[in-house]
Every structure is written in structure tokens, then in C-alpha cells.
Design goal:
Structural class: alpha+beta
Helix content: 40-55%
Number of domains: 2
Shape: elongated
Radius of gyration: 22 Å
Strand order of the largest sheet: 2-1-4-3
Number of strands: 4
Order of helices and strands: HHEHEHHEE
Strand content: 15-25%
Length: 106
């Protein structure tokens, strides 16, 4: 990368200040997610809600979830699933008529 910037500078395609900014720009390090915590509340079905929340009481490692997500063929959904790896600290709340779902990516 720095060689390309210096080459463009010597060919006078970019200015010295532009080259300086490109060479000193910091890249962001995004922390990778490792676990997913699920909470599911099914309306009018308290027993089902208790069972589901008991099953997902412990955060699930992404390594356990990945084999199931590889079968998804839809490109938009696939892109969202791949983005979860870099979404550490994200909280998602889904409200519908039948259930409420809370997903926390740790």
C-alpha cells in the first residue's frame, strides 16, 4: 500500500498532504464476536418461554452456530450472518405479535 502511494506521489497524481494522510491513516480494529446470548419470550405460552430460556441460559459459541448457517443460500441473509463475526457488543430486539426475541452478541 505504501509503495502505491509513494509511486502516485512521485508521478504527481496526488499531493504531498494527500499522500501523508493515506500513509498515516489508522485502520480500525473491530473486535470479533465469540458468543451469542438469546432470550425468547413467546406470548401466551409461558411454559414454552421458560423451556427456551432454560435451553439458551448459557451463551452459545459462534463455532457451534456456524455449521448451521453455512446452509443458507440467500445472499442478503448470508451477508448478515457473515457480519455477525464483527458485531461484538450489538444488541438486537425483535418484537412481533407472537414473540419477543432479544439477541446479544458478546
Amino acid at each position: 500500500m505504501s509503495r502505491n502511494v509513494l509511486q502516485k506521489l512521485s508521478d504527481q497524481e496526488i499531493t504531498a498532504s494527500e499522500a501523508y494522510l493515506r500513509l498515516t491513516a489508522q485502520t480500525l480494529k473491530v473486535p470479533k464476536a465469540r458468543f451469542i446470548k438469546l432470550r425468547i419470550w413467546v406470548k401466551d405460552q409461558k411454559a414454552v418461554s421458560v423451556m427456551l430460556n432454560t435451553m439458551f441460559a448459557v451463551p452459545l459459541p459462534l463455532a457451534v452456530i456456524k455449521p448451521f448457517t453455512r446452509r443458507i443460500k440467500d445472499p442478503e441473509t448470508r451477508a448478515l450472518i457473515n457480519a455477525i463475526d464483527y458485531a461484538k457488543g450489538t444488541k438486537i430486539h425483535v418484537d412481533s405479535k407472537e414473540a419477543q426475541i432479544a439477541i446479544t452478541i458478546i
